[in-house]
Design goal:
By secondary structure, the protein is α+β, with helices and mostly antiparallel strands. It has a single domain, classed as NADH Oxidase, CATH 3.40.109. Strands 1, 2, 3, 4 and 5 form a five-stranded antiparallel sheet that branches. Helix 2 packs antiparallel against helix 5. The mean pLDDT is 95.
Length: 196
């Protein structure tokens, strides 16, 4: 029977949700069970046409370091004068968190479902991952850095022509609770429609 009982405690946690910078995430990584719960939540998004316009690539353990080697190599190709320190940073980029999920937009086009709606579904999947991580007690950050837009890295990920990286979701335990940031006032972004 609807409406079901409200979950005010969960709502309060979501209303205090903050992105935790990847550099402030640490072990423990989400357990396999928790990571599966996060991904199951990701696919419970609005999906007009039941297209499933997303897929996920998981990086845990040594796969983070192996992918980092590709990032360092590609960064050096793009920046021949890059310092050893910069290359080391790129090499360790995915090691900032114990688990990283690449969210891949898998857009069907041409299709009667507009691409924009498919893209919104992909964004909702990313947000649901952040929400699920928060409710499970983890910190998380959704990042799109240079490697989310590089065609060579796309090839290393095995992306098809109709795919692109929507972002990398970094997940782990937060070192500390991040400080609150300025949010818009609801009255500044809410209006009631009226007949002209």
């Amino acid at each position: 029977m609807y409406p079901t009982a409200p979950l005010y405690e969960s709502l309060a946690r979501l209303q205090s949700r903050r992105s935790v910078k990847a550099m402030h995430l640490q072990e423990p990584a989400p357990s396999n069970t928790d990571l599966e719960q996060i991904l199951q939540t990701a696919i419970r998004v609005p999906d007009h046409g039941k297209l499933g316009p997303w897929r996920f690539i998981r990086f845990t353990g040594q796969s983070r370091a192996a992918f980092g080697e590709l990032l360092a190599q590609r960064y050096g190709e793009l920046n021949p004068d890059a310092s050893a320190q910069n290359k080391t940073f790129e090499r360790n980029r995915l090691l900032r968190a114990p688990a990283v999920i690449a969210v891949i937009a898998h857009i069907k086009a041409p299709h009667k479902i507009p691409q924009w709606e498919q893209q919104l579904s992909v964004g909702a999947a990313c947000q649901n991952m952040l929400v699920a991580a928060c409710l499970l007690g983890y910190g998380a950050q959704w990042l799109t850095e240079w490697y989310a837009y590089d065609h060579v890295i796309d090839q290393a990920l095995g992306l098809a022509d109709n795919e692109r990286v929507a972002g990398y979701i970094y997940i782990g335990a937060a070192e500390t609770q991040p400080p609150e940031r300025v949010r818009p006032k609801l009255e500044d972004v809410l209006s009631d429609w009226q007949l002209p």
